[in-house]
Every structure is written in structure tokens, then in C-alpha cells.
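In response to reviewer comment 3 from the previous cycle, which asked for concrete evidence that the modeling workflow produces usable outputs, we include below a single protein chain processed end to end. The sequence was submitted unchanged, and the resulting C-alpha cells are shown without manual editing.
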Amino acid sequence: MSIDIDTARRVAKLARIRVEEDALPALAEEFNAVLGFIEQLSEVDVEGVEPMTSVTPQRLKRRVDEVTDGNMQASILKNAPDAREGFFAVPKVVE
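The workflow returned the following C-alpha cells.
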């Protein structure tokens, strides 16, 4: 697959990146270089290779999965303009 200038322009627009018209050919070349590298990676045989999270073996830190209230109710409610009985109080909008 090859990226042309129109495709590079569209990708920049989708990414919401302003790219000057004279910089589009260079951007298209960079996209093509990245795609070429991805094609090289797809040729590598990874059969039987374990996925890894780091180059050195290590066990990831884990914590107990417990549901808590966060113990921050008072600090959150102190910013509310109106709080009653531990909840935000808002005007009634439905009759």
C-alpha cells in the first residue's frame, strides 16, 4: 500500500493536524516509510514467542480488587453549592 499526497492530506485532517501544502510530499514519504517498516515486521516469524511486557522478566504489581467509596465524600461535597445528607442537591427539573 502506498500513501499519496491526497491521502496524507486526509490523514492530517482526520488527526486535526495543520500541514502546509508544501510539507505534504514529505509527510506522505514518512507514512510510506512507516508502512514499509510494518511490512518488514509482518515477515518476522513469531510462532511460539511468548508476549512480554518488559525485556527483563518481572511480575507486575497487583492489588486486591475491592469496591470502596473512595473515602473522599466530604472533600468532594465541600465544592458543591448545595449538599444535603451526603449528596449533591440540585433544583427540581421535572414536575
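The chain has a mean pLDDT of 90. We consider this sufficient to address the reviewer's concern, and the full set will be provided in the supplementary archive.
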